[in-house]
Amino acid sequence: MHSITEENYLKAIYTLQGNGDGLVSTSDLAKALGVQPASVTDMVKKIVKKKLITYLKMKGVRLTEKGKLAAIAIIRKHRLWECFLVNKLGFKWDEVHEVAEQLEHVQSEQLIARLDEFLGFPVADPHGDPIPDANGVFSEPPSFPLATLSAGGKGKFVGVIDHSPAFLTYLDKIGLALGDLIKVKMVEEFDKSLTILLKNEKSIMVSFKVANNLLVS
Amino acid sequence: MHSITEENYLKAIYTLQGNGDGLVSTSDLAKALGVQPASVTDMVKKIVKKKLITYLKMKGVRLTEKGKLAAIAIIRKHRLWECFLVNKLGFKWDEVHEVAEQLEHVQSEQLIARLDEFLGFPVADPHGDPIPDANGVFSEPPSFPLATLSAGGKGKFVGVIDHSPAFLTYLDKIGLALGDLIKVKMVEEFDKSLTILLKNEKSIMVSFKVANNLLVS
DNA sequence: TATATTATTTAGACTTGTCTAAATATAATG
DNA sequence: CATTATATTTAGACAAGTCTAAATAATATA
Ligand SMILES: [Mn+2]
Ligand SMILES: [Mn+2]
Ligand SMILES: [Mn+2]
Ligand SMILES: [Mn+2]
Questions:
Q1: Which of these, B90, B16, B73, B8, lies nearest to B47 by C-alpha position?
Q2: What does the alpha-carbon distance between residue A101 and residue A81 come to, in Å, rounded to a whole number?
Q3: Hey, which residues does B155 pair with through a beta bridge?
Q4: How far apart are CA A169 and CA A160, in angstroms?
Q5: Residue A50 has what pLDDT?
Q6: Is 1.10.10.10 the CATH classification of the domain at A4-63?
């Protein structure tokens, strides 16, 4: 149906587009895909012909409804594969992304349907990212960065914003895992760093930067 | 490392080459890959540069040791994925080949090692085809076509030669499954068809063509 | 052996996806 | 407003992989 390259363009546009339906610039897309802006301009013209995106010259691109559904389908596959790798094969959460980038392009409706069932219809991947259903519908629980809480505030750690292996292994190291209940003990005025309390009574200190990349609900 | 196309060429050459180290002709390869002979000639020259095959103009190609190992690695992946699809996801043995053709090209040593472990280090795929180990070594149990047995002969059904969905679903229909013990009750002189006895006392008749595609040991 | 048939390679072209260098449009600055 | 800097597109090229049509080599046949 769509080439792997096309799928990667759609996915990149989807994530850059965010919730808003804003235009995505050629150069942002180029940066995200690791290609030159000129290559993006060429490719974009081809994808427009398939009615997956609209393109305003010198302004940027935007997914059509058809393109958005295609992008979500790929994200669904990516996240289901990440669940498989972590929950069934014993991968760590910082090791799965690259492999899932390949697996997400395997074409088989049946495969994904059965994988979903095999995994017990998970609603979030190992990073807490929501998994859309087969119709592309997300049932996203509202979440916000830990950094927005003040002293005394509580939340459950449900996801990360930064997905880099560096950040993920850091969280492993300080013993913070998805699902943990967090209570903010203190917020340092000077650098906005937080002292947080986990349910195992352990108290740890995290920088503002870290707290800003932890999603709680 | 190698492109998907290159991998498919290596795999096709390996299976056409068989046990013997005979040369594989351009046109046989073209037929197997579903491309024109002229395309094969072009592609072959590129693969030669990577020292994966040797090529004698007007004669054919042959895998180098390096090429043979590469081909076996892909076959290993293909068969492990087929095990996964059947044993874990509940696919039927006639439904897995196409999906495995895609999954076999996913690049990750770790993925295959962990999948192998997850599956319990299987030695054969759902069609009875042997799975080489990580070093490319097969521990193939000797087998032969059921048709070579005469009346009174016994064997265990361990594999198929014909892998077509049509043949596989036919076997399902007559109730013949991998691992079944088979006793040859009678061989019809006229058309060489066999009457065979399964361990559940059921007696069934199979044509010579079918018996020739059933491997027993 | 000469001729017809089949197998294989060469030549030239096309598609996909990418690149660099140059041209053009937009935004920022004085 | 004129100039400079940045963003974007166009032009021309390239590699991978394929194709068709034509040329050449090998095989079969008379
Ligand atoms: Mn990921
Ligand atoms: Mn993820
Ligand atoms: Mn197969
Ligand atoms: Mn098989």
A1: B8
A2: 9
A3: B182
A4: 12
A5: 96
A6: yes
CB contact under 8 A, A90 and B115: no
CB spacing of A99 vs B106 below 8 angstroms: yes
Q: What is the pLDDT of residues B196-217, one digit of tens each?
A: 999 888 899 999 999 999 999 9
Minimum mean pLDDT range among A34-38, A200-204, B54-58? A200-204
* Res A19: pLDDT: 77
Check if the beta carbon of residue A6 is closer than 8 Å to that of residue A24. no
User: Domain A144-216, what fold?
Assistant: SH3 type barrels. (2.30.30)
Calpha distance B160→B13 (Å, rounded): 20
Task: Give the span between the Cα atoms of A157 and A36, in whole angstroms.
Answer: 38
Give the number of other CB atoms < 10 A from CB of residue B38. 10
Tokens of A37: 């802006």
Angle CA A163–A166–A168, to nearest 5: 55
From the Cβ of B40, is strand C under 7 Å away?
Answer: yes
Q: Cβ(A100)–Cβ(A82) under 8 Å?
A: yes
Confidence of residue A20 (pLDDT cuts 50, 70, 90): confident
On chain D, which bases lie within 7 A of the protein's CB atoms? 7-12, 16-22, 25-26
What's the N-to-C CA distance of chain B in angstroms? 38
Residues on chain B bordering chain A, Cβ-to-Cβ distance under 8 angstroms: 85, 88-91, 95, 98-99, 102-103, 106-108, 110-111, 114-115, 118
Task: Yes or no: say if A94 and A71 are a contact pair by the CB < 8 Å rule.
Answer: no
Residues of chain B with CATH 2.30.30.90: 144-216
Residues of chain A with CATH 1.10.10.10: 4-63
Q: In what order do the strands lie in the sheet with A154-160?
A: A144-145, A214-216, A154-160, A181-187, A194-198, A203-206
In chain B, residues with a C-beta closer than 8 Å to the C-beta of A80 are none
Nearest nt (C1') to A39 (CA)? C18
Structural contact between residues A121 and A115, judged by C-beta atoms closer than 8 angstroms: no
In the structure, what pLDDT confidence band is assigned to residue B42 with cuts at 50, 70 and 90?
very high
